[in-house]
Design goal:
Blueprint: H1 2-25, E1 29-35, H2 36-39, H3 49-59, E2 63-67, H4 71-76, H5 92-96, H6 104-112, E3 116-122, H7 131-134, E4 142-146, H8 157-166, E5 170-174, H9 182-185, E6 191-196, H10 199-204, H11 207-221, E7 225-228, H12 236-253, E8 257-258, H13 271-289, H14 297-317, H15 319-340, H16 348-369, H17 373-376, H18 385-402, H19 411-422, H20 428-446, H21 457-470, H22 476-491, H23 497-512, H24 521-553
Parallel strand pairs: 1-2, 1-7, 1-8, 2-3, 3-4, 4-5, 5-6, 6-7
Helix pairs in contact: 1-13, 1-16, 11-12, 13-14, 13-15, 13-16, 14-15, 15-16, 15-18, 15-23, 16-22, 16-23, 18-23, 22-23, 22-24
Length: 565
């Protein structure tokens, strides 16, 4: 029955996979937006701002990003009278820096050269300005919230949403920017993902690095608006023009076109499909539980029934929460099942594929459950990244340590096993190894998040080299840790707990690739295939090299080589 549930769930998930591929292929237009403030640095007496914008338009950039001017600027240009009587003198500097809408002269300039204005709207700190007091009379096609919170946060977000809907404006979702209130204002029908490189980064990044970042953002993370700032050097104008020309050529070579960005078409698989997929994930969890505890079939049937009823209720009440919860279960369960079902022997290649198929089943179910437009544009996303990277490693290590004592048949047997390990004498060398493993585990978990640990320059160079060679790079923890460890585990004679823990890293990384729903499926599949092939090759080379080295030094007492069992 569990196998039948898995097969039905995989069939339902396959339907969702086909749907998603179609929606991803239908949105291939990228909008290039030039920051007016940044490009104004090139304006001079014989090359006015209008000429700068006109040349940008000739290059293919037809949208201009406008920032709000401040109260101080508005007063300085004669558009407002200073009235600071209602504020304290110590607040005047901050008050004069408050954003108060858009400069009409900049709007006229953009309209004169026939370009589209993209408005960057900033929330106020002292003044209470609603969104409609900031927007000009013309209806912008794209509004990008700037700063760390949306205009109207926290108690006027509905007003902001209604105002933007009235002017039919799309909302830019700035990548890597945690803006408070953005999920209440933007929706799957209005949100468009935006990637921007800051002015400070443009001062230090080489042109090829900037180009590769833009292309990677579009190709691998569903970015459809590129907000561009120029290079600031003396020859920055020429560098920037060359970069824009190369960028458009690269985008077209990758199957994209430059134009007006649009949101993804609305997509939400039927609740029935999601429920069937969730039933398959639950069946996988029950399969895994049988490796740990011996439970009667009647009790398993009751647990399955109750679990599916609870999943259906949660699906009806909190759809996104249900999707996130079952995705986390799939991401934990199936990598562990892959290692639990691996067989050791001479047919290493076949057994390698057989183990991986369990993880592939898990990722298909995960793609099926994490579906819908909100996940494509990252308004909703996978939750529990740290748990999915930690729990499978702990479970697999425990399975390897307990070995033939599993499955546990009773509560008494569980207490006996726990007491045996609790009272065991542990040599100091194992305590030192445990401390070393804890440090490695902390580094491993920190590397699962963006911007916590710096990436070494050598790794950056290797990453970009692999991207140029393979279009999309495989994950390092797959090709250098997880998959080689699995090959060594399958080729050896015993199931060493440490090697099992390293092997599961590759399997959970394989599944984790597909938790990034904003990455197109084709890219994720290509990355996974590269990882499996290269990782197997690396593991085979390590195993062959180890066997040759072991034979060479077997009779030499000067060498004390740690031998794999």
């Amino acid at each position: 029955m569990l196998v039948i549930m898995l097969i039905l769930a995989l069939a339902a998930a396959a339907v969702v996979v086909v749907q998603r591929l179609g929606y991803e292929q239908r949105n291939r237009t990228v909008e290039l937006v030039a920051d007016l403030h940044g490009f104004s640095q090139f304006a001079r007496h014989d090359f006015p701002a209008a000429a700068v914008l006109a040349e940008l338009r000739q290059l293919g950039v037809e949208s201009i990003g406008l920032r709000e001017w401040t109260l101080g600027e508005k007063i300085a240009f004669g558009y407002a009278e200073p009235d600071l009587s209602l504020s304290k003198p110590e607040d005047w500097p901050q008050l004069l820096a408050e954003p108060v809408g858009f400069n009409p002269e900049e709007l006229e300039l953009v309209a004169a050269v026939g370009m589209r204005p993209v408005l960057l709207v900033t929330s106020n700190q002292l003044l209470s300005l609603p969104i409609m007091d900031k927007l000009p009379d013309l209806a912008p096609h794209l509004v990008i919230p700037a700063g760390d919170q949306v205009v109207g946060f926290p108690d006027r977000l509905e007003e902001t949403k209604q105002a933007l809907n009235e002017v039919d404006a799309k909302i830019g979702l700035v990548e890597f920017s945690l803006q408070r209130g953005i999920n209440q204002v933007a929706s799957a029908d209005t949100g468009i993902r935006v990637h921007a490189i800051t002015g400070r980064e443009m001062q230090v990044l080489a042109a090829d690095r900037v180009l590769s970042r833009y292309i990677r953002a579009v190709r691998e993370r569903n970015i459809r608006v590129l907000y561009m700032r120029p290079f600031p050097a003396e020859n920055g104008w020429d560098q920037t023009k060359t970069m824009i020309t190369d960028l458009i050529s690269e985008l077209e070579a990758n199957g994209f076109q430059v134009g007006i960005a649009n949101p993804y078409d609305h997509w939400q698989p039927s609740p029935l499909l999601l429920w069937v997929v969730s039933a398959g994930i639950l069946a996988g969890a029950v399969l895994l539980s049988q490796y740990w505890v011996a439970v009667s079939p009647k009790l398993l049937l009751l647990l399955l029934l109750l679990g599916n009823i609870a999943g259906g209720i949660l699906l009806a009440v909190q759809t996104v929460l249900m999707q996130q919860l079952y995705a986390l279960i799939a991401a934990i369960v199936f990598p562990v099942l892959a290692i639990a079902n691996c067989r050791q022997g001479n047919r290493v290649g076949w057994n390698y594929l057989r183990c991986t198929l369990w993880s592939v089943a898990g990722l298909v179910l995960l793609v099926g459950i994490l579906s819908g437009t909100p996940f494509l544009i990252k308004l909703a996303e996978f939750r529990g990244v740290k748990l999915m990277h930690l729990v499978p490693v702990v479970l697999v290590f425990a399975m390897g340590l307990l070995g033939e004592q599993l499955p546990l048949g009773s509560w008494r047997q569980f207490k006996e096993v726990l007491a045996r390990y609790y009272h065991a004498c542990v040599p100091v060398k194992y305590l030192l190894l445990l401390a070393l493993a804890a440090v490695a585990g902390v580094v491993y978990l920190l590397r699962t998040a963006n911007f916590i640990l710096p990436i070494p320059q050598l790794e950056i160079t290797l990453r970009e080299g692999l991207e140029r060679l393979l279009i999309v790079r495989p994950r390092f923890k797959e090709i250098f840790i997880g998959h080689p460890a699995l090959v060594i585990l399958l080729a050896s004679r015993k199931r060493h707990p440490l090697m099992m823990s390293l092997a599961v890293i590759g399997q959970l990384s394989l599944v984790n690739t597909f938790t990034h729903v904003h990455t197109p499926l084709f890219i994720s599949m290509l990355r996974t295939l590269y990882g499996l092939i290269i990782g197997y090759g690396v593991g085979w080379l390590v195993w062959v090299g180890y066997q040759k080295l072991k034979r060479r030094v077997a009779d030499d007492p000067r060498f004390r080589l740690l031998r794999l069992p």
